[in-house]
Specification:
Length: 71
């Protein structure tokens, strides 16, 4: 199985620089509705929760985003 870094490197070699993947999360299952459609709303909620947890850690946030404020 490929690691996220390997996948990101492969994609970077295949696409233009502005289309590179900046973050890749591996999940066990993509949330889908009863009809099989991807529940994008659930994915967005998960990402927002992840960003809030990340931003609430002052050491990590200040290291990667020294001039930003996250609300």
């Amino acid at each position: 199985e490929n690691t996220p870094e390997e996948i990101m490197t492969w994609v970077a070699e295949q696409v233009a620089p502005h289309k590179k993947i900046r973050k890749l999360d591996i999940v066990d299952e993509i949330p889908k509705s009863a009809s099989g459609k991807i529940l994008r709303r659930v994915l967005v909620e998960q990402e927002r929760a992840s960003l809030q947890a990340w931003a609430s850690d002052p050491i990590i946030f200040e290291t990667y985003m020294p001039d930003s404020k996250f609300e």
